[in-house]
Each structure stands twice: as structure tokens, then as C-alpha cells.
Amino acid sequence: MNRSLRLVLLGLVIVAQIAVPVQLMRQEETTLRFGTRYKLKTAPVDPYDAFRGRYIALTFKEEQPFSAIRPSGGKNGNSVYVILEEGDDGFARISKLSSALPKDGLAFRSEYRSANMSDFAVVFPFRRFYMDEENAPQAETAYRNHSRRDNIQAYATIRVYNGHASLEQLYIEDQPIRDFLNNSNSRSR
Amino acid sequence: MATRGNKEIGWLYSQLPTLVSNGILTENAANAIRNYYGELPPSSPQRALIIIFSILGSALIGGGIILVLAHNWENFNRSVRAILSIAPLLLAQVLAFYAVAKRSDSVAWKESTGLFLSLMIGASIALVSQTYHLSGNFRDFMLTWLVLSLPVIYLIPSTLALLFYLGAFQIWTFADPNVFFEPARHHSTWQYWLLLAAAIPYIVHRFRRDPVSWQSTLHGYFLILTLTITAPFALQYGCSIWIVFFSGLMGTSYCLDHLFVDETPSIGRRPYYLFGTLGSYILIFILSFRDIWGIHEFSENFSRNFPLYFAEKFAPALLLYLFTAWMTLQLLRRKADHHLTLLAFPVIAGTAYIVGVWFDENSFAVILINLYGLILGIVSTWRGVRHQSWAGANMGLALVSALILARFFDSEFGLLQRGIVFVVLGAGFLGLNLLLLKQARRAQS
After folding, report:
1. What is the CA radius of gyration of chain A?
2. Which among A10, A22, A28 has CB closest to B155?
3. In contact, B12 and B29? CB cutoff 8 Å
4. pLDDT tens digits, residue range A121-154?
5. For the whole model, what pTM was predicted?
6. pLDDT of A81-95, one tens digit each?
7. Which of A160, B215, B265, B349 stands 20 to 30 A from A182 (CA)?
8. What ipTM did this prediction achieve?
9. Which residue from A6, A22, A54 is facing B72, i.e. has the nearest CB?
10. Strands A108-114 and A79-86
11. Between chains, do B125 and A13 touch, taking CB under 8 Å as contact?
């Protein structure tokens, strides 16, 4: 292979290599800017399971088994579109599972799981909230204490746009987790 | 290609700029000469050190950048973080481009930029994922990384990029839990073979150009390691087809070494020879146990999953087996009959497998392998004594002893009989080495 051909091919490869992270960023930015906002309650967690390295492992109340109308072709491990609706308390609920993307694009893909004979569950695609390595241990404790069965004051906001969902922020006691940590730090001092 | 001395080529390369500037050679002709002889291997310890340290340096810098950015600078806003995620990749790409355009005769430049670029591709995607809290699937991430770093091996070209690729390939293979637990859902074996095959042309190309270069040696060891670790999982639930695959792989390795390695460098520089001989001995010993041959699952599994099984498990083994047969014929054409004893192994293993599947019975396979192992061991001991090859003689006797001991413990013999066998084998080893020593002394005097 002569040098100019090698350089041309390398140039093409370089473009492809850059395109992957750029495309990821573009999709996330578009969703975060133009997407419809939903508030999702987090689920009670096993306290020793929530924290993995530098991120908080999130689970959501709406992911848990429910008796929704089973979409056609719904099979364990398949992906399915989740359509949300806002409830009276301001938190989002699953209104429908669908195998096709609705026209308004207000849905996102999730993994479909059958929990037992009549109940079904989904796994949302946004289950990690990355933190600074110094804040992470504190954040973990805070999230844990506020996601107990009797005391759920943690929720996340997501944005949904054109069939894609992005995780926007994690809230504890109605404050973004970073503000909450800063405030509780200054309180304890 | 002409046999060449590196010193002469080094001198020729040093003359090229003068020849070009005096108008005796055109720039194109000078480049053609460089392409023909290829890059200069490290001729002095200093050159080797420069290469080693530049590789080490780029690995450390690459790893360091990943760690610093993994701190996850929350205080920066998203656009700053976007720049931080892309900048290291861009830097690596500029360096790689420069290495190919201006430094294509420097091994140090090509190896270090190849490795650095490979690392930064993954770092960039991982950092973006972290900024936007993307959970993603780890296996898909590794797949993207593999596909994007594959061309780096060929275009720079870089041995370190290849070694990185093979390492990442192993991680990708084991990142799928279905590999271990749910064979029915394990549908990506074709991807395994495709990704593996994609790296082979580079290894072959370098091997044919210079089979004993440090690059080829490293390629050999890494390829063998990768295959030994991952192929059993790609072939599992394929009704013991791995037996055919690995016997073929060892046969191919053995032929590759004997067909292409003309000079006889130190044995450590011959990974294919080591794998072909030592690997065969070990595999023969393993196959001498009855429980290894899981042939009885064949009829049930094969018919139930016909097209998939054939394409993903049997076809690769079959292709490799045919290739081994072809290589063996090439080697035998050179009238080198002494290779036959070891090269019979793939044939014996294949026959044992087919007969076992046909009659749904393991006994024939086990007896055949044990007999063959015994004969191989005795022949190589005898040959070792004749040609005063200590390694050959002792390896042969080791195989015979291992087979005898294993069969002895299979059956119910008393302590007395076992003791006698131990003493006999021990005496055999002592006697053999004394004999070799005596021969060596006689040859000296």
C-alpha cells in the first residue's frame, strides 16, 4: 500500500472514530434541549447494591412488575417502546407499551421482561448516575437514605425526544443531588 | 524476498537522502526502496530501548489521561466536558497521521501512536457516556471499540495496536454472560469468528515478511494465547468439536514454523513451534481421558440446531482442518518424513472424532489416542537419543510416563503395583539422561 492511499484511508478512519462520540453527544444534547420533561420516582433499593464505583445504580418505581397490556411480540429480553403520562402528583407513569414508535416520538426503548404469568416489567435504559469520585460515597448514602420503602423522596428527571430518553438530573428532597450534598455539608459544619 | 543484512539496509537507508538530493534517485524510487526492504528492525540496544520506552510512555500517558478524565469533573459544564472528551482522541489522531505521513520509517513512532490512538478511541466514548449518564451495554461498547481500532493495526501499521486489539477481543468475548450460562441465547459466535479473522491478514503478512522478528514473535504468542483462552467458549456446546479445532490448530502451527522459519533462532522466538509440539503433547494427554470426549451429545444437539451449529461451530473447525491438511502436504513435499509422527495427531484426533460420532461410542477414540500417544512418546524418545536432543527425548518419555500413570490411576491397582510403576518410570528417566550424557561426552572426545 503506498503512502498516499494509506493516508487517505487513515483520514476516513479518523472521521469514523470521531463520529461515534460526536454522534452520541449530538443525540444526548438534542434530547436534553428539545425533549419533553418527565419526573420519575426511584424505587426502594437494596442499600448495598446501589453504589457501583463512581455511579449510583438507579432503579425506578415504574420499572417494577405491573399488569400492563402486553404488546404483540413481547418476549423476555426484547425491546419495547415505553410511553409515559404525567399523573396528578406530577410524577410520570407508564401509560402504554408499544412495539412501534408513536408519531409524536414521545417514547423510548426499554428491555421487556415477563415477571410471572400475568405481570410484566421493563428495564429503563438510564440506570446510572455518574458522580465526581469525591462526592460519590456521600451521594450514595444520601440516595440510600431517601429511597427506603417508607421514605421515598428521591426522583430523577428525564427528557424524551424522538424515541430517545436522556437522564437529566437526580433530585433528593427536591434539590439536585449536588446542591443537596452541598447544603447538607454546610448544615453539618 | 532477498535475504538481507540489517546493517547493509541501514547503510542503504542512510544514503538515500543524499542520492535523492544529488538527483541520482527520484523521491518515488527512494520510497519504493524503503517499501521493498521494509522498516529497519532495532539493530542496537539503544534503538530497542527507544522503542520500548516510547511504547511504555504512550501506554502510561494514555492510561493517565483516562484516569484524570474519569475523575468526572462535575464542576465543568457540558460543553467543556465535551471538548475534554474529544481532545485526547483528536491529539492521538493527529500524532498517528503525522507518524504515517512523516515518520513511517520509525518503529517507535508507529508503535507508540498506534497504541495511543487505540486507547483514546475507547476513552473518548467512555467519557461521553459518563457525561450523559449512558448506561449502555458493556459488550456493545467493547464491540464499537474493537471495530474502530481494527483499521489502526493495518493503516499505521502497528504491532502494539494488534496486541491491544487481541486483548480487547478477549474482554469482549467474556463480557457476554451468555457465553457461560445460556448457550441458547448466545447468538454472537459469528461475530467472534469475524472479529478474529479480521486480525489474521496482518499477522500473516508480517510473518511471511520476517517470521523471526520481534513483532512476529509477539503476534504468535498473543494469537495463541487469545485462541486458547477464547475459542473453547466460542466452540462450546458444539459436541466436543473443539477437539478437531485444536488438533488442527496445533498441526497448522507446527507446519507454519517448519515451512517458514528457515534460520533457527532460539526456541523462545518460535511460538508456533512451541505450541505445535508442546501443545500437542498436552492435548494428547488430556484426550487420553474418557470423560473429555463428550461425543454422545452429538446427534441430539446437532439436528436440533442444525444450520446455526454447522455455521458457527463446525464450519470454522472444518476450514481449519482442511487448511492443516493442505499445509501438511506442503511440508511433506519437502521430503521431511520425520514430521509425520507429530503431524499424524490431527488425523488421529479427527478419525477418532468421526468414528466416535458415527457409532456414538467413546471407547475407540480413547484407545486410539492412548496408543498413538504411547507410540509418539517412544518414537520421540528414541529419536531424541539418536540425535542427542535432550528436550525431545525427555518430552517423549514424559508423555509415555504421564499416559501410563494416568491409566494406572484410572484402574484399581494396589499400592504395591503403583509403587513398582513409579520406580520403573523413575529409573527410565534416570537411565535416559545418563545415556544422553554418555553420548554427549563421547561426541566431545
Report:
1. 20
2. A10
3. no
4. 888 988 888 877 777 777 777 777 776 655 557 8
5. 0.83
6. 999 999 888 899 888
7. A160
8. 0.82
9. A54
10. antiparallel
11. no
